[in-house]
């Protein structure tokens, strides 16, 4: 009887293992990573114009921190990197309808977005800061000082800047723009009192327009950025997180970061 029980247990274990292996095999077959390898191409969605993450160069190519990271990711897989410039309001639908394989475009990880896509571990952490009119520098020291109907706040439509402005500065007059550049120019031209947008972008615009805007360069929100992929793909998620740990550990990440965030030599190449 004991021998029969042992044989039965062994057969049950083998059956479970076979089912598990079969399920794992099917997951890999459907994984975006497997399909990327088969296609010999990694299609990456982003929206050009978010300095220094992704921009269009004078020669028509795309450059930036995210572009370099995406190229490095494609190289690690052994496939071609294909940039897919996409309007921000359609970028998640583009991913979900297979217009691209991954979204590497300065997207903040939020629980609402996580309902639609899965994220890698954060690859960088940013936050919202303020560009203000120089004439307001003495009276505006933080976002709290702007929470008054007499102030006009610019923000980019569909971004965490819009969310932060509406949540933290609800009494102000909030105007939404299609791009952060439009909002920044409204402040520079005196048509808005402040712009709520990502610290990195505000710092760059301020450096280029020192006489026209003042940057309060303290982030007042915590925003981890992640790479987005379609749901139900543990193999691709695992690969992305392993890749990020590796490049952050071997110094490659720091080299790329310093190129785009601690230098402005790239500005002359931007369209």
User: How would you state the average pLDDT, rounded?
Assistant: 90
Strand content is 15-25%
Major beta-sheet overview: 6 strands, mixed
Stretches with pLDDT under 50, minimum 5 residues: 9-22
State the helicity in percent bands.
Answer: 40-55%
Number of helices: 10
Topology pattern, helix = H, strand = E: HHEEEHEHEHEEEEHEHEHEEHH
Shape: globular
Radius of gyration: 23 Å
Distance between the termini: 80 Å
| Count of strand segments | 13
Q: What is the SS-derived class?
A: alpha/beta
Characteristics of this structure?
271 residues; 10 helices; alpha/beta
Structure description:
It is a single chain. By secondary structure, the protein is an alpha/beta fold. Helices cover 42% and strands 21% of the residues. The chain has 10 helices and 13 strands. It has helices spanning 2-30, 32-39, 65-77, 91-96, 111-114, 160-168, 180-188, 199-208, 234-249, 252-261; strands at residues 41-46, 55-56, 62-63, 80-85, 102-108, 118-119, 124-126, 128-132, 152-156, 173-177, 194-198, 214-216, 223-229. The strands form 3 sheets. Strands 1, 4, 5, 6, 7 and 13 form a 6-stranded mixed beta sheet that branches. The chain has a 5-stranded mixed beta sheet with strand order 10-9-11-8-12, with helices on both faces. Strands 2-3 form a two-stranded antiparallel sheet. A hairpin with a 5-residue loop joins β2 (55-56) and β3 (62-63). The longest helix has 29 residues, at 2-30. The termini are far apart. 36% of the residues are buried. Mean pLDDT is 90; it is low at 9-22.
